[in-house]
Amino acid sequence: MKAMTLNTFGGIDAFELREVPKPVPGAGQVLVRVHATSINPLDYQVRRGDYQDYVPLPAITGHDVSGVVEEVGPGVTAFVPGDEVWYTPQIFDGPGSYAEYHVAAENIVGKKPASLSHLEAASLTLVGGTAWEALVGRAQLRVGESILVHGGAGGVGHVAIQVAKAIGARVFTTARAEQFDFVRGLGADVVIDYQKEDYVDVIMRETAGQGVNVVFDTIGGDTLTRSPDALAQLGRVVSIVDLAKPQNLIQAWGKNASYHFVFTRQNRGKLDELSALVERGQLRPHVGATYSLADIPLAHARLESRDNGLRGKIAIAVVPSANTNATQAQS
């Protein structure tokens, strides 16, 4: 099978498209023909060596799968060949999704929502699971509460807005001016131009000085330090960004704030919850660009660029078709 392998840590030239042996499912595992995968910040962080102690080389990386079960191992009862499935491979525990085939444990695999294409489904597994764990599992966002989603037009952010609205929250988000219509279309109630406005000032004005109940950090920087200024009493901050620089959290003490740090865990339960939202029309991933398996290095380069013009996710069409066998840019 063809796979995009990582032979050394570094830039996009560290990748090589190679022929590698097709995996064989063991007990409790399924062999999936990968139709699509996608690109996440975690992917380029792995490539450049942020987690090199956990990734022996050469490696097949990638953290999203949408595809079709081709074979099942002994003891598998939930799936049969021909089932359309989606999941996030177990991170740092075996090969990833940048390949034509992937083997996964049955218990992390879910039935793909019928209303999503493979490109859409592959664009939702990791970011959807992350948003669900952050907002539902950790922040325990409730009906009638308010939340600030930093980076609402991004991969995780655009899903978090939709999940928060499905819960029944009032959603604030930060975005560039050219992304305003996009994030409003997702359900954002108040959109803040982070290039021209201070989000703390806007939130305090819009909430009559009360602040929001939850801040969801997808961008890093000084967000952890500044979040208490925008929080209500007993507010919660959830971050998915790994920060090497120490943060001053003294202001959080006065708000009785709690902080949560999320590195998403794989399980079928979260996928089933996301599927329910998809089928009720409350959640849909946005594919902002599509690339081929061979063009994964170009996809990495685009996502890493600060001025990439993206909305939502970059999808990778592993199984080519008439409209996905070449690099495409979409709105």
TrEMBL record:
Alphabetized InterPro entries for the sequence? ADH-like_N, ER, GroES-like_sf, NAD(P)-bd_dom_sf, Quin_OxRdtase/zeta-crystal_CS, Zinc-ADH_QOR/CCCR
Q: Where is the Enoyl reductase (ER) domain?
A: 10-316
User: Mind telling me what this protein is named?
Assistant: Zinc-dependent alcohol dehydrogenase family protein
The subcellular location is:
Cytoplasm
* Entries under Pfam families matching the protein: ADH_N, ADH_zinc_N_2
Q: Which SMART domains match?
A: PKS_ER
Top-level taxon of the source organism: Bacteria
The organism named in the record is Massilia soli
Task: Name the PROSITE patterns for this protein.
Answer: QOR_ZETA_CRYSTAL
**Mind telling me which Gene3D superfamilies this protein's record contains?**
Medium-chain alcohol dehydrogenases, catalytic domain, NAD(P)-binding Rossmann-like Domain
The UniProt keywords, alphabetically, are:
Cytoplasm, NADP, RNA-binding
State how it assembles: Homotetramer.
